[in-house]
Amino acid sequence: MQKVYTEILQISGDVITVEAENVGYLDIAEVSTRRGVSLAQVIRLDGKHVYLQVFAGSKGISTDDKVRFLGHPMRTTSGENLLGRFFNGRGLPLDKGPELSDNLIDIAGPPVNPVKRIIPNKIIRTGVPMIDVFNSLVESQKLPIFSIAGEPYNELLARIAIQAEIDIIVLGGMGLKHDDYLFFRDTLREHDAISRSVFFIHTAQDPVVECLLVPDISLAVAEDFALKGKRVLVLLTDMTNFADALKEIAITMEQVPSNRGYPGDLYSQLAVRYEKAVDFDTAGSITILAVTTMPGDDVTHPVPDNTGYITEGQFYLKNGVIEPFGSLSRLKQQVNGKTRMDHRAVMDTMIQLFAAYRQTKEKQAMGFQMSAWDNKLLKYGNLFENQMMSLKVNIHLEQALDLGWQIMRECFSPEETGIQRAIIEKYWPK
């Protein structure tokens, strides 16, 4: 039986302080008030002083209310019953379905022991040519999508959720507008992808502490599925909102701010979530795709800057397309030699030609005379942008490779591509 504390020393914003012993970091407590019982989570320990973030806010809490620690961290239910369901950051239903209380698991556990990991070596096909062909997503990889507000990153995540060749989708939304929540719900239902998906949604009007719980609860459920042999893709949007929630709590706690007001442990807070990505040697896997919006389109902002040191590449979503330059999957070489013999040749050649096209566009803008080669590059670049880069394009990897050959054939002779003769002879369109 846990001891009940009857004195709250301080109430600051949604954070309360009590004096207690034998309490663990991230433990859950019940705060009993005249209006009922609220849950709170330990967010800081300073000697006997314990700081708790109240989920529902501190309104109505007084200094003589009772606090009882439950002796364990936040828990959530897991298993097949979650599929097709929508929950908030605390794991409570948003879809008017029943609350679930069986198969409880702790959230915010440690990353997987490296001994239990295997080297990533399997591609996840998404149906997006700019990913599958040029920056393949690899099972157990952790990749951010760098973008800015207003770009269609949620539309991209929804499309990947529908098309990715994976067993389970876990989507964690942080600071979403209600319209974004409805968009994910309706889109996945329309495409019959809801039955393999679990949603944990925090909207902008929900308590800030729930924003911090979303990645942890999403990854805990993903890990439980992965341990049962499932290949799980975790989609998180938006990690900048998560970092802003960390900053808000740090300000409330009067912590000494670091770069642009973010807490000094921002890197560690991000890393402990991203490092949940894993391919188990005897079970399934967890792959993470996480949107990170860049305020002012500034990649040196603390959130994308720290993220870049943790993850294995990044996608840049700009002007409604995934940019081929700047986007990088550092693990793509692990898989694109196993897909089709011509994959690397198509990938390398098309990007080289597109880089030459961008240079030709600059020459054209400055009024230089266009040569016959320049005109070929201009034609090629327009075809590449419309048929490869557009997010409207929805084709399998092999179809995308065939399309790449068709685009090159339409603009160049085989010799002009610089591709090896053996590959040309096998794949060049007749």
What features would you describe in this structure?
This protein is of the alpha/beta class and 430 residues long. The protein has 3 domains: 4-73, Thrombin, subunit H (Beta Barrel), CATH 2.40.10; 76-331, Rossmann fold (3-Layer(aba) Sandwich); 340-427, no CATH class. 35% of the residues lie in helices and 24% in strands. It is built from 13 helices and 21 strands. The protein has helices spanning 129-132, 153-163, 178-190, 208-227, 239-252, 266-274, 302-310, 336-339, 343-365, 372-389, 397-411, 414-417, 421-427, and strands spanning 4-5, 10-12, 15-19, 27-33, 36-46, 49-54, 66-73, 75-77, 85-87, 104-106, 123-124, 137-138, 142-147, 168-176, 197-203, 231-237, 278-279, 285-293, 313-318, 321-322, 328-329. A hairpin with a 2-residue loop joins β4 and β5. The radius of gyration is 25 Å and the shape is elongated.
Could you provide a short overview of the structure?
Helix content is 35%, strand content 24%. By secondary structure, it is of the alpha/beta class.
Query: Could you name the CATH topology of the largest domain?
Result: Rossmann fold
The number of strands is 21
The residue-averaged pLDDT reads 91
Name the helicity range.
Answer: 25-40%
Structural class of the helix and strand makeup? Answer: alpha/beta
Q: Give the percentage of residues in beta strands.
A: 15-25%
Main attributes?
single chain, 430 residues, alpha/beta, Thrombin, subunit H, Rossmann fold, 3 domains, ten-stranded mixed β-sheet
